[in-house]
Each structure stands twice: as structure tokens, then as C-alpha cells.
């Protein structure tokens, strides 16, 4: 009897701790645009899924592409999205729907760097519904993080910013509120298609900053391994895979020409060996869209909304021609 009471007390304490952690998560972990993205792709069917980094996020508008191709699409790109994230996002999507094509935006700098610990580790995983993909994702990625990332996911966010929003955050989650107006700021707005439109800036006031650069001989093998696994996953499930590198301002291409030329050569050869299409708007499709800074919001290559829509139309036309 004594052992039973002790076990029961331990169980109750454990349940209270779990309830407390869940409650804090509901109140303090912010409602990110990735929450909307994951909810959308697991509840709706799309022809095209766009994966990749912040360049894809701000440069590719699925709604504009649909006007040309007639294919529905959703943009799942975001800064900090590495190959491992794209792979498990695709596995999750495949569990819930049957996309016809994956459009993967390639930023060479992401293949010579490692994924840093922090809120980007949870940005995708945290929003996954319970699934086989989530369990595999946890084992191969999240389990290797600092234990606080697992138990206290909100600790990566500023409490001074999140605490005043507790009521709104909690309400949005418990009511299933995915209104995109919550994700609008002074500089950009999130669209239901996953596309994030950046507002135009005064380019005469922009300052140059060094982007993540590809360096020959320094490719991170895990990043390439997951890119290859993503391609194989698509082939195994009869999903078309297309790789795309979005345009970069001409000033940046000139400043780092050696790095970019080496990157284009490396990825061109890699995708050719994989037998998949690689559409590079900095090499063979250089003239298809402007590289003048006026179309961008920084020297790194993130477009303003009008330019992104114009580019998305060109991208759609190129893909249709193939």
C-alpha cells in the first residue's frame, strides 16, 4: 500500500508538471507564421510546395504563379530552413496530402554552415501535429538540442515581448485563430499563400552586409545528405523536384563573384548528377529578371512585393516552358 501511494504521488506530480509546461507553452510560445504554414499544408491539398530559405519566402508568390500555371501552391520557405527541415516538412506533407511538385529554393550559403541552436530549431518542429514525421524529426534533430529547447521552448523568445501578448497568444491557439492580420508588421505582411511581402525601401540608404557565402571545399555533408534524401523522397513518391536559385543584386554578385561562381558550378553539377532540373537566375536565366537594386530591399537579394510578383510570373513561365 505504501509503495502504491508513493507511485501515485509521483504520477500526480509528473502530471502537474506536464500540465504546467503545456500551459506555459500555450501562453508564451508565440504564434509564428510557420504555425499558419504547417496548419495550411496539413489541412489542404496543393499542387506545388515551395521550400527553401528567406529568399524563397520573399521572392516567390504562389498566387502569382497560379495565374500562369493554373497550379495551386503554398510557400513554406523561411530564413533558417536547412535541408533537414525541408526533408521532414516534406515527409509531414506527404503524410497529409499528395503534392505534385516540390520547388526547392537553393541558397548556397546554407550548405557550408551548420544549423544553430535557438528558436529556428523549434520554428518548424513545434508546429508539427503528432505524426511519424514528427517522431523522426525529434530523434534526428531536436533530441540533440539543449534540454531547455525541449522542455521550455518559449525560453528562446524574449519574455518582455511575449508576456504582454499572453492573452492574445493563448486565445489564438485555443480558438484555432489563423488570421493573417496578426502577422503583419510595419515592414512586411504575411499572405495566406505563405508568401511574405516586403514593403519597398529607399535603396539609396541601404548598407552592404556580407551574406552567407559558399566556400569551396567547406560543404557541410549533413546538409547535402538531407538534400539528396529530399530528392530521393520525391522520386520515390512520384513528386517532381525542381531546384531554383533566385536572382541576387548585381552589386553583390560582383563583390563575391568567386564565391558565387564556385557555388553555381558545384550545385549545377550536383543537380545534373541527381537528374533533376536546376533553374538558376544568376547564370543561364540571368537576363530573365532584373538584378538592379531597386527591385530589392537589401543587398542580399530579398525582393520588395511588386518585384516578387513580377519575378514569380517569370519563374512560372520558365517552369511551364520546361
From TrEMBL:
InterPro entries reported for this sequence: SGNH_hydro_sf
Domain of life: Bacteria
Gene3D superfamilies: SGNH hydrolase
Record's protein name: SGNH/GDSL hydrolase family protein
The organism of origin for this protein: Blautia luti DSM 14534 = JCM 17040
Amino acid at each position: 500500500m505504501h509503495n502504491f501511494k508513493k507511485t501515485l504521488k509521483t504520477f500526480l506530480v509528473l502530471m502537474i508538471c506536464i500540465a504546467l509546461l503545456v500551459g506555459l507553452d500555450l501562453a508564451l510560445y508565440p504564434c509564428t507564421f510557420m504555425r499558419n504554414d504547417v496548419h495550411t499544408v496539413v489541412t489542404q491539398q496543393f499542387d506545388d510546395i515551395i521550400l527553401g530559405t528567406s529568399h524563397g519566402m520573399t521572392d516567390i508568390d504562389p498566387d502569382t504563379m497560379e495565374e500562369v500555371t493554373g497550379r495551386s501552391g503554398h510557400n513554406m520557405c523561411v530564413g533558417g530552413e536547412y535541408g533537414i527541415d525541408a526533408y521532414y516538412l516534406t515527409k509531414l506533407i506527404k503524410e497529409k496530402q499528395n503534392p505534385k511538385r516540390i520547388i526547392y529554393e537553393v541558397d548556397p550559403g546554407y550548405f557550408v554552415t551548420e544549423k544553430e541552436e535557438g528558436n529556428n530549431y523549434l520554428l518548424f518542429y513545434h508546429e508539427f501535429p503528432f505524426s511519424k514525421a514528427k517522431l523522426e524529426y525529434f530523434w534526428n534533430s531536436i533530441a540533440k538540442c539543449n534540454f531547455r529547447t525541449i522542455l521550455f521552448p518559449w525560453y528562446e523568445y524574449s519574455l518582455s515581448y511575449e508576456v504582454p501578448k499572453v492573452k492574445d497568444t493563448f486565445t489564438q491557439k485555443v480558438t484555432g485563430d489563423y488570421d493573417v492580420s496578426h502577422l503583419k508588421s510595419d515592414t512586411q505582411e504575411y499572405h495566406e499563400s505563405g508568401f511574405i511581402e516586403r514593403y519597398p525601401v529607399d535603396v539609396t540608404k541601404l548598407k552592404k552586409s556580407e551574406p552567407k557565402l559558399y566556400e569551396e571545399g567547406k560543404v557541410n555533408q549533413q546538409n547535402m545528405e538531407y538534400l539528396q534524401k529530399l530528392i530521393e523522397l520525391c522520386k520515390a513518391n512520384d513528386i517532381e523536384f525542381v531546384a531554383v536559385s533566385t536572382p541576387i543584386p548585381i552589386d553583390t554578385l560582383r563583390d563575391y563573384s568567386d564565391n558565387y561562381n564556385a557555388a553555381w558550378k558545384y550545385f549545377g553539377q550536383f543537380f545534373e548528377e541527381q537528374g533533376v532540373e536546376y533553374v538558376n537566375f544568376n547564370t543561364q536565366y540571368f537576363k530573365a529578371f532584373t538584378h538592379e537594386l531597386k527591385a530589392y530591399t537589401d543587398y542580399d537579394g530579398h525582393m520588395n512585393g511588386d518585384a516578387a510578383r513580377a519575378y514569380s510570373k517569370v519563374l512560372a513561365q520558365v517552369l511551364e516552358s520546361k
